[in-house]
Amino acid sequence: MSSVHIRGMHNYNHYKIVLNSMEKYSYNPEVLQLIENSSIPVAVYQFINKRVVTVALSSVS
Q1: Cβ of 20: how many Cβ atoms within 10 Å?
Q2: In the predicted model, is pLDDT for residue 30 greater than 90?
Q3: pTM check: above 0.85
């Protein structure tokens, strides 16, 4: 099983996403809100059961 480490935004520590797991990763609400409101385009995907699943997207306008 491989993993990816993402440096957290602001005062958050590292967050670990485990790839090829059976469950969809979910951020805590505060981190998800930071990603969604980011002024920088951000997309987080996860590979689950041979499919790519969207975990989080920023809503840059």
Answers
A1: 12
A2: yes
A3: no
